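Workshop exercise sheet. Pairs work together: one partner reads the sequence aloud, the other fills in the structure field after running the prediction. Swap roles for the next sheet.
Pair: D.N. / O.F.
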Amino acid sequence: MPDLLQVALFAREFEDVLYFTSPPRPVQKLLFAVLAPLARLLGYRGSYPEYTNQPPSERVEVEPWSGWAARG
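Structure field:
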């Protein structure tokens, strides 16, 4: 489970598409503004390109879902 410093960097990096529902948004912005520089000093990053640029490790075939037809 990520610690608060990792969460702070992640939240700052992806704040345009993601935010947490708790604590309230103003509290998050203040808390993460304080913690993010500390996390960077300790060597944390918001994302790690060496992991995000890898292809999937395996492929799984998925059958089409027929749930809506079954509800009719």
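Discussion prompt: The radius of gyration is 18 Å. What would you look at next?
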